[in-house]
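Q: What changes when adenosine-5'-triphosphate is included in the input?
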Amino acid sequence: MYIALLITKYLKRKLAPMFAALAVTLCTAMVIIVISVMGGFLNMMRQAAQTLTGQVTIFSGPTGFAGHQEIAKRLLAEPDIEATVPLLRSYGLINIKIHETTRTVEVVGIEPASFNTVTSYESSLYWTNQHFLDIWKKQYPASGEMSPTLKQRFDDIKKQYENLNLDEAGMTFKIPSIWEDEQIKEGCVLGIAVDQWNTRDTEGKYNVSNSAIGTPVIITVLPLTLGGSFQSLSPAKAQFTLVNEFKSGLYDIDANRIYVPMAQLQKMLDMDRKEVWENFDPATGEPVGKPTIRSDRVSELMVKGKEGVPLAQVKATVERVLQGYLNEHTDTASLWIQTWEERHSTLLGAVEREKGMLTILFAIISLVAVVMIAVIFYMIVQQKTKDIGTLRAIGASRKGIAGIFLGYGLAVGVIGSMLGLALAASIVLNLNEIQDLLYQWFGFKMWNPQIYYFDRIPSELDRMEVTIIVFCAILSSVIGAIVPAIRAAIQDPVESLRYE
Amino acid sequence: MTATAQKTLLVSTDLHKTYRTGGEILEILQGVDLKVKQGEWLAILGASGSGKSTLLHLLGGLDRPSKGNVQYNNQDIYKLSRKAINQYRNRDVGFVFQFYHLLPELTALENVTIAGMISGSTLSATDRKKRAEMLLDQLGMSHRLKHRPNKLSGGERQRVAIARALLNEPDLLLADEPTGNLDADTGQQILDLFIELHKQGQTIVMVTHDQKVADLADRQVLLERGVLKK
Ligand SMILES: Nc1ncnc2c1ncn2[C@@H]1O[C@H](COP(=O)(O)OP(=O)(O)OP(=O)(O)O)[C@@H](O)[C@H]1O
Ligand SMILES: [Mg+2]
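A: The predicted holo structure follows.
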């Protein structure tokens, strides 16, 4: 009881504990801020990875595998599985005609609507009608200075832009009417960084007027035989209209992937469902007899588990179902199963390791905090020698004396870490606003969106991590107070009472 | 004062205290035999450095003797448990020091009540405050309850220290030169308080090197070369 009284009195009257609390505040705030930004970064990457991959993927080599419809049917009969979607992955060249650039890309054939049930494809589409309307607004001359014909023209353009519906174009690969072209039947969607003309401004935003959107691109792919060698077929080439671009947040993917209609790509790669004849008339070269049906092939089947089902369980279910299927269909190509985490493990692993390194660093920082508290408390104990002697003379026990200083350390830890938490929260939750202010005042930009891939500084306060950090800070303060507390407790009361 | 009929409160037998500093052995107390009766005022005289404070600390359970023992109510206090000896200091003994030794962060009132907050004290929170206020009032300090020690004069500080020593109604008041740091007038006021306390039956052991102060006591002993002389 006297312990509590003395702790509150000591806290109010002394500058030294303020410094100790300040040290705890700064350490706590620093650790929370760095962990939050790091964790936010990691989470953004994980989200991006999930956006693209679905939870679990069954995949084969580039020659693909047949029977995905049957596997999907069996999977969907399982209570754990929410949806499945096939896709076809290949590599090829893209030629963006308007920008006269050619480059190699990963060509992915999808059915956008079903692809969107497993991934967040739709929300990754970048361009909206608003982008075009914004340009239109900028070019629109001040009213009054315009002839009626010109005004009519502008109004027409506006109407066209309003009817563009780029989201739908991305979801169907249908070409909006203003970009219609007699020769081109279908659209395609590029990763936003595939076209190097797409550059970001200082705010990290792309400008639609640099984009090749609405223009034709030529895609070339190489069909493979089932054995994996190039067929005698020549490379397949087709024209698509670029109807939208996507931004997943993972630079490697946004710079290298394009989406085209699945059926179209299957045809180009000679992996579509068709009738094949085995016998030909030697004289005419015409096929003879009945054709057999060759079923279509895809290279991946993405699987999404039901809400709340753990990833490992989804994977186990997929493994079980696939094994059952393979036992009955021994002629199926080799298949593998990967979760999205396994798929992006190199990238995610790097960031996770970095977070691990930071944790070690913070362990050292806590040690510094402990030493700092210990030094400050040692000085406080020395100042208080006389009081300690007095307290012993009026009956305080050694335990009580130690309790005063441990409790003092606890109080400093609690106050310091709470202030640190408040400081960190106000910084982390307003990180981008703070950055904008710094930019306005000093022209200094910490997070350059032209360099980093995300346009906002990612950050997020994880309740669990924050709790652990605050707890560690308090614990460090108490640990730091232990040695001084022991010193205070074992001190000879007579020694301190003898002199003024 | 007829203290002779009273029972013996405190006895020290063959009390030794030896210090070792850098190979040198300092024998400060070399067999002190002392008896204090209930209600008695004993003055311990002695030159500076003769070991008066050392002896008082030993009597109050603050130190440990090198040899010999101290018996309080026939109980060897240095054979008590830690807890019990803390209680002895808290409840049975009240210390008054030359340099007051008040806690600078606490007000006058808190400096008194704290003696009742330490475990071992049996006073309730309200009783403690009431008694502290009453004591300070008796000592003429009622107008200074909320002041911190650095705002008080030496005499006022010593009054607060006496109130603190008396809070738990100790049987034995140990005073180490309580007037040593005060001017003559203020010192006399403090001594008047001791006289008053003594009249009320308080047992007092007071250390001093001032013969005039010692003359107020029932009995005087002189500490010289480690032993007591009558
Ligand atoms: N821890 C210690 N180590 C060595 N010597 C000590 C120690 N404590 C006290 N002394 C010595 O013991 C002697 C007695 O000290 P004490 O304080 O009891 O004297 P005193 O009679 O109270 O003197 P004063 O009248 O000046 O207060 C002194 O010479 C002092 O130097
Ligand atoms: Mg002395």
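Observations recorded in class: Residues A 498; B 19, 21, 26, 28, 46, 48-54, 209 surround adenosine-5'-triphosphate (ligand 1) (CB under 6 Å).
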